[in-house]
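Cont'd.
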Amino acid sequence: MAIAADRGHVHSPERSGAMERLQGLLPKIVLAPSFAAIVVFVYGFILFTGYLSFTNSRILPNFDLVGLANYTRLFGQPNWWLALKNLAIFGSLYIVICSVIGLGLAILLDQKIRGEGLLRPIYLYPMALSFIVTGTAWKWFLDPGIGVETIVRSWGFTTFTFNWIKDSQMAIYTVVIAAVWQSSGFVMAMFLAGLRGIDNEMIKAAQIDGASNFNLYRRIIIPQLRPAFLSAFVVLAHLAIKSYDLVIALTNGGPGRATELPATFMYSYTFTRNQMGVGAASAVIMLIMIASVIIPYIYAEVRGGQSNGR
Amino acid sequence: MAFLEIDHLVKRFGSTEVLKGIDISVDEGAFLVLVGPSGCGKSTLLSMIAGLDTITSGEVRIGGRRVNELHPSKRDIAMVFQSYALYPNMTVAENIAFGLEMRGVAKSEREAAVARVSEMLQIGHLLKRKPSQLSGGQRQRVAMGRALVRDPQVFLFDEPLSNLDAKLRVDMRTEIKRLHERMGTTIVYVTHDQIEAMTLATQIAVLRDGVLQQFGTPAEIYNNPVNVFVADFMGSPSMNLVPAKVREENGRTVVALARTGEAELTLDTGAAAQKLAGQIGREVLLGVRPEAITDADGADRNARTVVDAECHVDVVEPAGSDTFVVTSLGGKHVIARMRSDAAVRAKERARFAFNMDKAVYFDPATEKRVA
Amino acid sequence: MAASSPDTAVRTGRVTRAVIYTALIVFAFYYLLPLYVMLVNSVKPLAEIQGGAMLALPQAFTLAPWQSAWSTAQIGVSPTGLSPYFINSIVMVIPAVAISTILGALNGYVLTKWRFPGSTVVFAMMLLACFIPFQIVLIPMARILGLLGLAGTTSGLVLVHVVYGLGFTTLFFRNYYEAFPTELVKAAQIDGAGFFGIFRRILLPSSGPIIVVTVIWQFTNVWNDFLFGASFSSADSQPMTVALNNLVSSSTGVKEYNVHFAGAIMAALPTLIVYIVSGRYFVRGLMAGAVKG
């Protein structure tokens, strides 16, 4: 409704006099630098990178258009396909395991647990750490020479082997382990907020209806966590596609190129292999991947917000 | 020349016309109430007088001066908001003095003004508190204090009592009226509560869908509504509006109301007969306020045309001071306001006295007043 | 009776509760394990770690690894320890957080209380900017920093972090001010306060919580950033994360695990302290950044 919608802000009426004119323009003047920065540094740069992806830029940008050649080369690279495959493995496991652990912990924590105030921060603190720190810790903890393998062997299981981080088939799963460790507590917090938002009276009603705890969660509570699932999915997918730091610190893309991800691929092709055009093309593909997750989500959020009214 | 003039005021948000050409003018010292259902544009109109909303076309003049282009702070107005809009980070005293501070009034003068106003509103003991430490009624007083301290030409009130509980609302209503009588400053007051409008106003403007329906004194609006909307909106319980047929019977003009299971009821139109001459043989909407339908002994002795009739009683609702009695006429529930000791019982017949002096008649198609 | 509890009304039996507590505690150990590993091994002689006693408490307690990590360890080409890089990070973080928070507050104020035709589009563009993969801006950013003469400088990194933090800081303040009663702004207008007067006197005094959330969010993100630091810094402007990675992944010589762990804790300490001191606000920021964006 027009009237209600307009209550949200103050109009700056036309004024007379230079000072008042200035007052009227102030909001725009204040916003202008930020807006200009976003336009240039985000949207301008996206266009620039997009343009570069159609040029034969190598060590430095140049502006000779070569059509889709970079994209053809990109998708002709086994390394790029490996990066995509790794992203698919890493992304899906990361999202699924984080969601399962996050939801499980949230449900357990929601049982009126004594010491919740102590446990919650323990689950969440990894989110405050840099991926480089996380990577360093897990890199040596998973290292067969000093970490888990050695520890378990020292307990007497002398044939125990755990060398995934050195195994090009399995290394990507160590990235999953470290990433899940870092993010699952955060997912727990999102689900916990969702659980706490559910109407208590409905739960009581379901209990009076004779629902067991299992059915209560399966039929009544978890279906209502849809928004939390959606948010968790979007955040995790976004983090997965952008993942760079953790891989660098944990495996540096190795062994060999076994843990290559699109982000590490882009960086190495652009800055160390001097194939800027291909690097730009891979960045564009990454942008498209993220946009295909984020834009529908924001669109739904904005539309949902409008239909709820103010 | 009137003091506050609103001259063909139009407001558009995009393609939606929210106010469609409003003309109102009141003299200095008037208490103008803008009343109407939510979404009628009354708050937008107030915002435009305040300068918080731009004017699409038309003109607002205060004391003969066009204020369309003036910033709100330069219009010499003060406003009391529905939510009170007290600054949460400032004490009561700072809240009241803020407007003076912004205008560069010296500290000693501000303190004197705050003391004067807080005494008037009996909030002196609250001056050091923050708004969050006040009750609803106290916040209301502080909000008024903030307006009063400025001693403006016009006070604007935007539904100031709607957040108070029922009893406090009545008390504050009386207080606002007393303040107005004491200071004599022009007030524009927005409300959706027609009782507030009736009790406070010297002039009422009834709005609907951005159109001014009627502008007049409370008595004019109440007794002589120009259309069905105003008749229905003002008054509680609201006016009975019953389909009826105008007829000529034995040289007298009467209205006939259908009844289920018995003969129709005919009511003499009395003084309205002349105006109804053109309506003979046609349908009208008869409007009678509940207090104009009484028990036979409770009828107004000075009324010229009172028609007694026996009707079937559907429901009896004792309300202490009065008893509301519901019957059915013309397919509608009709409420009569009888004395509390009137001998009526539900599902029985009783005598009703219709004071036809107070009856009004509308065209059912245009909903405009015909007599 | 559980009826008065604010939590869910779900009720569980005694055995179930024992299982629940066990599971919760096992997970607590899982989350604490890497921190424990870093801590105990940062105060052990290297030989103890190489001997396979990573989980054991130190037999010969020593602070030498910390000393080495801080002031003598080889980072890149020079044996400076992490201390200069720690200072680089601080010099970078403070202005980056301050500027982006101030701009975010002003933007949020304009976008909620002084809307103009097109302001929704401006906000939508800023919101979308929060989610771009930074890989898409690396190449042009490197070039622009070069053109501005800021390549390899801390000022350049500050600029980068301000620009790419703006979306989130604006989002935080916009959502907060959206719920701030507009009638207060109208009342202040009638009282005669101007654009900055209303911001300073009316909105800012009530903005404490969102300022804390924003500062923590920005601090954590800027401090923990690696990609921009790795891409746009030179040897003498490298932030802590880049230096730590150089320390850990240097392939020359014996791997000094204990020094690496000490360095990792140093890099983690500032954000960890912020988290411990004001975890509530930290979580609120995470949620606001995630759910609303």
